[in-house]
Amino acid sequence: MHSTIASATGVRLRWRVVDIVVASVIGVAAGVVFWAWGQAWTPLSTALAFLPGLEGLLAGGWLFAGVLGGLVIRKPGAALYAEVVAAVVSMAVGTQWGYTVLIWGIVQGIGAELAFAIVRYRRWNLPVALFSGALAGVAVAFMDTTFSSVAAYDLGPRTIYAVSAVISGIVLAGLVSWLIVRGLAATGALDRFAAGREVRGTASDA
């Protein structure tokens, strides 16, 4: 089945050991950032309290793991895997939101993954990165405006939150992740991945 899909789409579906290791490293590192972002949530959201719902601009800080993992690994499931690992790590380190972080991580990861699936795992450019961040933003907007304290807001602030979350996903998850990949690739750190070879103009049969 995998070989049939691969021949039809031109995608290498099988994960290498290095893919698993690097995706895990991305997830763990992002999980620590998620935890730190959570610690900064209260002062940052307070600073944005002049317009209820504007705190959605902070949502992207929890969305970049999926986009980054997808852009680097370029295999089906990479975005979801990296986002879930990040959620588990932030939960293990200690977060005020407890086990719900894992639920959010799964949904956010699915959002990020969906963008790569829509282009059949064949394009990894900036527009696709932004698209992945946007869909991750849609995912967190849905979760937050439906199941979190944001759900108690009036329609106006909930709408502001949702739009802000999508914008944050596009910028903090989509654009920033794309820039991180290009920065890492320029150093040679990603030479074992197509993402790195594209930037450096090198070739490999891996």
TrEMBL record:
<keyword id="KW-1133">Transmembrane helix</keyword>
<feature type="transmembrane region" description="Helical">
    <location>
        <begin position="17"/>
        <end position="37"/>
    </location>
</feature>
<keyword id="KW-0472">Membrane</keyword>
<feature type="transmembrane region" description="Helical">
    <location>
        <begin position="49"/>
        <end position="71"/>
    </location>
</feature>
<feature type="transmembrane region" description="Helical">
    <location>
        <begin position="128"/>
        <end position="153"/>
    </location>
</feature>
<protein>
    <submittedName>
        <fullName>Putative HMP/thiamine permease protein YkoE</fullName>
    </submittedName>
</protein>
<dbReference type="InterPro" id="IPR017195">
    <property type="entry name" value="ABC_thiamin-permease_prd"/>
</dbReference>
<dbReference type="Pfam" id="PF09819">
    <property type="entry name" value="ABC_cobalt"/>
</dbReference>
<feature type="transmembrane region" description="Helical">
    <location>
        <begin position="78"/>
        <end position="95"/>
    </location>
</feature>
<feature type="transmembrane region" description="Helical">
    <location>
        <begin position="101"/>
        <end position="121"/>
    </location>
</feature>
<keyword id="KW-0812">Transmembrane</keyword>
<feature type="transmembrane region" description="Helical">
    <location>
        <begin position="159"/>
        <end position="181"/>
    </location>
</feature>
